[in-house]
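INPUT
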Amino acid sequence: MTEFLYMGGYGGYVWSAYGLCLLVLLANVIAARLRNHNARREVKKYTGREQ
Amino acid sequence: MWTWAHKFGSPGYFYALAGKVNPWLTALYIALFATGLYLGLVVAPTDYQQGDSYRIIFVHVPSAWMSMFVYVVMAVFAAIGLIWRLKLTAVLAKASAPLGASFTFLALATGSIWGKPMWGTWWVWDARLTSELILLFLYLGFMALQAAMPDRQTAWRAGAILLLVGVVNIPIIHFSVDWWYTLHQPATITKLGAPSIHPSMLVPLLIMAVAFKVFYLSLLLSRARAEILHRERRTRWVQELARSGQL
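OUTPUT
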């Protein structure tokens, strides 16, 4: 396990690259969910108001 | 064809269809990422020249491919939008932009992290790196344009023209490694003939590339759905969805 994390001495580089990817992709997922959540809330503001 | 295009291009139909497809796409990209990461980080052997640092390739190359792919997709939406005025094209291009910018940022950042141990530097003004940085600015420019102009239609027209003009940068990025033989290594996978990479490394790379592509598609649909709801919030079909509790 330690050897796997060590990556032949390149652990710092490899894991920071993968970590950064995880972070950016996850941020995109959260942002998309938030946008849908907010859009739904916005729609409901109009519901029942104008017919 | 035209009835199909109009049916598919109608926001209500697209919204419903994207909602149905997206959970499957999410499951698919999670499975692909899991497989690709396992094969790339655990199964694939250490490279005899670069040691384990080469494993950055499994995220670097797919993000770089996606950075160009998403841009071309947006340019196609721009062309369709300008010629046929399909409403959906603006929505899809706008939803693609932050995703494309994210992939471009990742390509640059992971490349930089890879460059430090291999080239001895985080950054050089090499042709490939510079043209990829210009791509990032094109994405950010498009996004800024959409945010800055008060009229949505004018913003989209201006943005679409920017996208089409910026397409010249794509072949420049692709061929930069052959035209200016500077620091970035030439293509390994997409060159003519057999790719010069062993299957044990090529397979995880291709799986990761498909994972990134499905991820993009899933997030594109999700963002497009939010944008459609926002734009159509006062229309009858959206309000009916809300009233029937299907939102």
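end of record. The longest helix of chain A spans residues 11-46.
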